[in-house]
Amino acid sequence: MDTWKVGDVELRSRLILGSGKFRDFGVMREAIQAAGAEVVTVAIRRVEARMPGHVGLLEALEGVRLLPNTAGARTAEEALRIARLGRALTGERWVKLEVIPDPTYLLPDPVETLKAAEALLAEGFLVLPYIGPDLVLARRLAQLGTATVMPLAAPIGSGWGVKTRALLELFARERASLPPVVVDAGLGLPSHAAEVLELGLDAVLVNTAIAEAKDPVAMAEAFRLGVEAGRRAYLAGPMPPREGASPSSPTEGVPLGGPGR
C-alpha cells in the first residue's frame, strides 16, 4: 500500500482538508468523507473565540484526526500561545504552525516561523510549518526536526494554482534531505493537486477550493481523484520531455512524406 508518514503516524490519504468556509457542518462532513481525508485542520483561535462558523466545530469533527493550527498568529509568541491552547482543547500534539503578520497577501514570516518551530519542538509538539517556497528555510526546519514542511503554491485562498512550480521542483529534487513536503495554499482545481503530486511531493492541503465550490462534496471527490491520479502518474515514471517531436510508429520503410503516426 502506498502510504506516507507524519511523525510516527502512517496515512493513506494524501489530501488534508481545512475546516473553514463551509456553509454548514453537514456539508463539511460530507466533503471530508468524499475527499477520503484522514486529517482536518482546525483554527484554534477562532474556535476558542467562538467565532461564527466555528461554534461546535470540534464536536462536528469527532472521529477525524485533528490538526490544530495557529491561524491568526502574527508572532512566534502568539503562535506558541495558540499551539498550547490547541493541545489543551484537542489533546493533539500536532500543530500546523502559521505565523502571518501580513494582512494583505497573508505571506508567512520565515524568521518568526523558525523561532516558533524551535520553541514548539522543545515543548514536545509535532510541528508542521507553513512556509514560502524557500528551500533554505525548509532545510533549517528539517534540521530542527519538524514533521513536515508546507510550502505555498500561491497566496492563501487565491485559487491561482501552482505559481511557485519552479521552486517546488527544487523541493522535489531535494526530497531525500527533507521531511514530507505538503503543498499548502493557492490550489484552486483538482488538476493543480495532480500537478503537485506528479512532481513527487507528498501531499496537499486544500480548503477554499472545496468549501467555496458550488458543490463542495463533488469538488472534494474531484480533488481526491486528482491527488490519486497525480501520485499514480509519479509512481508510473513519466516519460522525459524531448526537444522535438518523436513519431509513435516506426519510420523504416515509410515513403518520404508518409504518415508519422
Describe this structure in words.
39% of the residues lie in helices and 15% in strands. The protein is α/β, with parallel strands linked by helices. It has a five-stranded parallel sheet. Strands 6-7-8 form a three-stranded parallel sheet. The protein has a two-stranded antiparallel ribbon with strand order 1-2. Strand 6, helix 5 (110-122) and strand 7 form a beta-alpha-beta unit. Helix 1 runs parallel beside helix 10. The model has no long low-confidence stretch (mean pLDDT 90).
Task: Report a brief summary of the structure.
1-deoxy-D-xylulose 5-phosphate binds at residues 157, 185-186, 207-208. This protein is 39% helix and 15% strand. The chain is an alpha/beta fold.
Key attributes of the depicted protein:
261 residues, alpha/beta, 5-stranded parallel sheet, 3-stranded parallel sheet, EC 2.8.1.10, thiamine biosynthesis, Aldolase_TIM, Thiazole_synthase_ThiG, transferase
User: How many individual helices?
Assistant: 10
Shape: globular
End-to-end Cα distance: 37 Å
- Strand order in the largest sheet: 5-4-3-10-9
- Which sequence of SSEs, written as H and E, runs from N to C? EEEHEHHEHEHEHEHEHEHH
The whole-angstrom Rg is 20 Å
Number of strands: 10
